């Protein structure tokens, strides 16, 4: 005959275990609800400015400052019509094209120049490599405002102010140390046996870089492209400093034109243009983020 162990309080051990499991599930459920509530609160705080901007783009300018409601009292598309018409005699598409040229140029320049420089630092042994790499990393500690005046003087004497060249030339010369460092660290994780096998087959550095390294560097290249596009698209100080011609102005400069301290500011059109300026960034990220996720997911796979 089977006997059932009884706890001191009279309850069987089976009933006690079931009670403990119920209590554990109850605690886990409370923790899960609390965690999701916290995450939801954080999401609301993060997304509130974007929702407010989108809502304000449909409000008349007089209601944006005085009305904090997210729901427009009288929604209107007039703000988008004004934004698409442009400002100061310059159309919206001119601002858009200028920003797109700089953003795409930055992506192309950074992915080309920084990947080549990263390959040299990560795969080629040359005298002073570590010293040059440390010097490059040291430039990350140098504030941008320290070098902006000498740079402006150089570009001014070369008669390059009021062109896109000062904003793009550094991208094509691997002057962005952050992206070089990112790619170097990525390359160092790739097995050197790939290089050695290619050299045995007679491949040189150009063939190794183009046929082996670049395909494997897709996650690092996509990450660099996303950051380069967003940073260039949102850059305000650089275009403000170097671009004087209104026909060369970018989207961030156009947004500033809607705010006038001496007359009435058109906040409605500014919010509408801000929404339109956000669309390319979101599209660029949505198109390329799947490659980023795929690269991260396969980093631990070998062979």
Structural summary, described in words:
One of its GO terms (cellular component) is plasma membrane. Residues 96-288 form the ABC transmembrane type-1 domain. The N and C termini lie far apart (59 Å). The protein has two domains: 18-77, no CATH class; 89-258, MetI-like fold (Orthogonal Bundle). It contains 14 helices and no strands. Helix content is 71%, strand content 0%. Mean pLDDT is 84; it is low at 1-7 and 297-303. It is mainly alpha-helical and 303 residues long. The longest helix is centred in the N-terminal third of the chain and has 44 residues, at 13-56. The protein has helices at residues 13-56, 61-66, 78-85, 92-123, 129-138, 144-157, 165-172, 177-188, 193-200, 205-216, 218-234, 237-242, 251-257, 267-297. Helix 4 packs parallel to helix 7 (165-172), helix 4 (92-123) packs antiparallel against helix 11 (218-234) and helix 11 (218-234) runs antiparallel to helix 14. It is flat.
